[in-house]
């Protein structure tokens, strides 16, 4: 799939280290943290300067949109609602399997500053008894941060697992003002509103049933 798509890459500097965005003309395939360092920057500190975007003629539109989205996420989150969500073209988003269903629901239903439990996300995705399987779907997420698996926490309010490690997950939640550790001490989580209408996303789904 990747060879057929002719993947291109774009790097974005973030407070967590260098992020590498991969994708093709049809959409983003992955987001990967290259440095793998433990974040030591206070999310409330002054943001680092943004990376200038490459010549738009040299970067596929989905990658340019994703780089702009990530830059806004880290440095100007209030501007996120006005930005387009880049199309996604990783194979998991082209299939109507459980993992794709859960990730698409997470992308559209759980917004900046909200968290949701594994059980609640399973219910939102139409599989209320599949909370354990939701954990597997989070581990298979190819585009972390954009598809916010860091916002999925334990029902107790504990942070829970994260591919990038608990320190990265806590940093992201702190950045969004929803640190799960603080919520756990309060005895609960600030859960996403299940009744909130899901927004439309530009997910590239080939052959999926609506």
Automatic annotation (TrEMBL):
Region (Disordered): 33-58
Reactions that this protein is recorded to catalyse: a 6-O-methyl-2'-deoxyguanosine in DNA + L-cysteinyl-[protein] = S-methyl-L-cysteinyl-[protein] + a 2'-deoxyguanosine in DNA; a 4-O-methyl-thymidine in DNA + L-cysteinyl-[protein] = a thymidine in DNA + S-methyl-L-cysteinyl-[protein]
BP GO annotations: DNA repair; methylation
Top-rank taxon, per record: Eukaryota
Main location (coarse class): nucleus
Limits of the Methylated-DNA-[protein]-cysteine S-methyltransferase DNA binding domain: 99-177
Keyword terms of this UniProt record: DNA damage, DNA repair, DNA-binding, Metal-binding, Methyltransferase, Nucleus, Phosphoprotein, Transferase, Zinc
EC category name: transferase
Subcellular compartments: Nucleus
Reported cofactor(s): Zn(2+)
InterPro entries in the cross-refs: MethylDNA_cys_MeTrfase_AS (IPR001497), MethylDNA_cys_MeTrfase_DNA-bd (IPR014048), MethylDNA_cys_MeTrfase_DNAb (IPR036217), MethylG_MeTrfase_N (IPR008332), MGMT_N_sf (IPR036631), WH-like_DNA-bd_sf (IPR036388)
EC number in record: 2.1.1.63
Stretches assigned to the Methylguanine DNA methyltransferase ribonuclease-like domain: 13-85
Family: Belongs to the MGMT family.
Protein purpose: Involved in the cellular defense against the biological effects of O6-methylguanine (O6-MeG) and O4-methylthymine (O4-MeT) in DNA. Repairs the methylated nucleobase in DNA by stoichiometrically transferring the methyl group to a cysteine residue in the enzyme. This is a suicide reaction: the enzyme is irreversibly inactivated.
Name used for this protein in its record: Methylated-DNA--protein-cysteine methyltransferase
